[in-house]
Amino acid sequence: MCLGVPGQILEVKGDDPILRSGRVSFSGIVKEISLACVPEAQAGDWVLVHVGLALSKLDEAEAQRQLDDLAYIGELTAAAKEAE
Question: Which residue in 13, 43, 51, 58 has its CB near the most CB atoms, within 10 A?
């Protein structure tokens, strides 16, 4: 199973579409991510990231829904571990 995580682009680096990268924030954790698959992405945009590669752009509402779902899954996992 693959998991894509939404993040917000803080800064874009580079002009070459294949080599572009960006600093992306994942709820405060900032990572350097390849933007090769989303050449139109700019600072402030939300992107779906898998294994260090931004796969697509998301609108802010969809990004927040996905972040809420991930938080809920984390709560369920924690509750299951407590029940053991």
Answer: 58
- The CA angle 30-18-20, to the nearest 5 degrees, is 30
CB 55 within 8 A of CB 48: yes
Q: Which two tokens stand for residue 82?
A: 């407590």
What would the 3-class secondary structure string for 60-74 be? HHHHHHHHHHHHHHH
Pairwise CA distance, residues 21 & 34, whole Å:
4
pLDDT, mean of residues 22-50: 96
Identify which of 6, 8, 2 has the alpha carbon closest to the alpha carbon of residue 44: 8
Identify the pLDDT of residue 76.
79
pTM: 0.87
Residue 82 has a pLDDT of 82
Can you tell me whether residue 54 is helix, strand or coil? Answer: strand
**Rounded Cα gap, residues 57 and 55, in angstroms:** 7
